[in-house]
Amino acid sequence: MIKQKSITVYVFILFMMNTLLFSPSVNAKQVAADHKSLSLIEQSIIKVASLTAKGDLDQLKIELNKALDAGLTLNETKEVLVHAYAYCGFPRSIRALQTLMDVTKYRKAKGINDHAGKDATKIQSQETKYNRGKSILGELTQAPQPVELSGYSAFSPVIDTFLKEHLFADIFERDILTYAQRELVTISVISAIGEAEPMLKSHLNITLKTGISPNQLQQFVEIIKSTIGKKEAKAAQKVLNEVLVSQK
């Protein structure tokens, strides 16, 4: 009797392992990705970007030090602050850059020589900036871009030009940060400024497409909560819930 029960348990375990490993909807790679945590550098990017958008320079100074200690290069840190301007404006971005200047000056006086890191690769393409930006947007959304403008782009075609040529060509094309890192900056800034749910929803979807997992986005919300506040985290969580439900 005991032997029969042991065989039954063994068969059940084999069945469950087979289901997890070979089911078309669940595979080992997915399981690993779903439990993966954000790296220290990714966490630093979220904190630095959200504090930049809020304009909390005292706390930003602390997190900039931590980001550099975590391994974010000087050029990558600058790029986070530059990228943020596209979503929260020049005043916040420039004040953050001035804060970084103070931080690097202080660290240098302490004998800390931060690694500059790589510069952006020079663009060799002969394609127009508009078409390059349109192509990058297609990569990010993993969807063909419409031939005809619609919505706000049709209402104000100049904003579509600025988005394609400047945001997605001039900024996103710079390879100092990866697309995933840029999307982390983007959703951090949008969450911090608030009242921009449609844009946050769009960029959360894009963030998933860049390889950031649902679990990592849940961790993102927790970081927003501890860095910026409960109100902003609650709003971000609501939008994230909608995004994750739509993915099923």
UniProtKB/TrEMBL annotation:
<dbReference type="InterPro" id="IPR052512">
    <property type="entry name" value="4CMD/NDH-1_regulator"/>
</dbReference>
<feature type="signal peptide">
    <location>
        <begin position="1"/>
        <end position="28"/>
    </location>
</feature>
<feature type="domain" description="Carboxymuconolactone decarboxylase-like">
    <location>
        <begin position="32"/>
        <end position="98"/>
    </location>
</feature>
<keyword id="KW-0732">Signal</keyword>
<dbReference type="Pfam" id="PF02627">
    <property type="entry name" value="CMD"/>
</dbReference>
<protein>
    <submittedName>
        <fullName>Carboxymuconolactone decarboxylase family protein</fullName>
    </submittedName>
</protein>
<feature type="domain" description="Carboxymuconolactone decarboxylase-like">
    <location>
        <begin position="162"/>
        <end position="241"/>
    </location>
</feature>
<dbReference type="InterPro" id="IPR029032">
    <property type="entry name" value="AhpD-like"/>
</dbReference>
<dbReference type="InterPro" id="IPR003779">
    <property type="entry name" value="CMD-like"/>
</dbReference>
